[in-house]
Amino acid sequence: xxxxxxxxxPLTIDVEQDDQSDDEQLREASSSTxxxxxxxxxxxxxxxxxxxxxxxxxxxxxxxxVLCNLNNEGGLQEGLDIFQLLAEExxxxxxxxxxxxxxxxxxxxxxxxxAIVDLLDDNEEEEAEMAGAALPSKEILRYQDxxxxxYTGLHVAVIHGxxxxxxxxLFLASDLHVEQFPAEVFRAAExxxxxxxxxxxxxxxxxxxxxxxKTAEQLAAGMGDLWQSWLESGRLLASEQC
Length: 242
Known about the structure:
By secondary structure, the chain is of the alpha+beta class. It is built from 10 helices and 7 strands. A hairpin with a 2-residue loop joins strand 6 and strand 7.
């Protein structure tokens, strides 16, 4: 039998038998001897490694975790929860067309405006080459996280305080009036090589709601002073909500 790659012990576990008859249970009740049974406890990963099931744990919130010690080019990370990473990779294998969308959300979180524009530029080239087979850039901009809380890039940018990303998304995926944009946004757009397009037929990103029914503007309202001037100006409020 294979051994656990983590502790080198046999991949078995002793459990109490619970399928006894009433007579057997009565006899056991009068005896100090407990009846146990050895059963397999083997989690085999795709790489061929075997582990005990307790590699997976449930924290007090009820969320499943997969804890491991990861040692790679980034150094040793002990007690790392890789459940979300495994779940995301499995999801992307089933829906590979969303890989760019997941990267887009990560760039919104990090505040990497240049990476967002590069991703959209590359995608538009693919759209032209693949004759409609690629996901349109306007859909990537409005992508909602199906694995999480249905956040858009705007939700993510607001939560993480990424002001430059918010301006970019309003510039590319909303119908915010041009007078609401400061001059530096237009200068940044020129530097990045992006321009506003007609948004007719596409949802204003400010109107999209997460899994809790909240827009990015509603999330911003609960974040203290960071977005106060934006809330007062109404920039984060879609016209249909006004």
